[in-house]
Design goal:
Number of domains: 2
Number of strands: 0
Helix content: over 70%
Strand content: under 5%
Order of helices and strands: HHHHHHHHHHHHH
Largest sheet: none
Shape: elongated
Distance between the termini: 42 Å
Structural class: mainly alpha
């Protein structure tokens, strides 16, 4: 492993453990005993280093999403599984990290999502189309509108200061936004799958 790769690896662990906003370049490489001068040989600034850390992080995360290329038992399960897995990342053990990324570096987060989650986005669009065609989602729906609504709702859960001010837990926000919307676009057939999935989470 090169020195640059080691800096990225250790800095990523520091970001995940302590968040992004409060970490300085010096804090990040303290475990390595390196000076900031050495870091700036490889990276223009903290944001440049963060960008490289995110490339590494999301590359590893994609390996944990095998269902993206698997056939789902039904489209409702596939959509719910995807958003629940992403939700666990945003509000899991590295909550401060994802909060900082969403609130302070949204453009960088968008870049990473576009680069690494294109497969996931295509999968969701296909699942929506399959769900409408297969009678799981309401037949009058337009798939592109549904997809954009999913995206907007999720962005509001993770980035909206207005929702944050309401002081509800992330799970409550999810139940009242994305979960409620998905349930609302389901047919009776889709609702059976939706309710079964939610029961399996408990």
């Amino acid at each position: 492993m090169t020195q640059k790769e080691r800096i990225i690896e250790v800095s990523l662990q520091q970001f995940l453990e302590h968040g992004i906003k409060q970490m300085t370049v010096q804090n990040l490489v303290e475990p390595l005993g390196l000076s900031t001068k050495t870091v700036y040989k490889y990276f223009a600034d903290k944001e440049d280093l963060l960008k490289q850390c995110l490339f590494l992080h999301y590359s590893e995360l994609l390996k944990k999403f095998p269902f993206l290329v698997m056939e789902m038992s039904n489209p409702v399960d596939g959509v719910l599984m995807f958003y629940n897995e992403v939700f666990k990342l945003d509000f899991g053990t590295s909550q401060t990290f994802y909060h900082d990324l969403n609130y302070y570096y949204p453009q960088l987060q968008d870049l990473i999502i576009e680069k690494f989650f294109l497969i996931g986005m295509i999968k969701i669009k296909n699942l929506i189309a399959e769900g409408i065609e297969g009678g799981y989602f309401l037949s009058e729906l337009k798939g592109d509108v549904v997809f954009e609504t999913f995206t907007l709702l999720y962005i509001n859960i993770t980035r909206s200061s207005k929702l944050k001010e309401l002081n509800y837990s992330p799970n409550i926000l999810m139940q009242n936004t994305l979960d409620a919307y998905i349930r609302g676009i389901c047919t009776e057939k889709g609702l059976v799958s939706f309710d079964d999935f939610q029961k399996s989470k408990k």
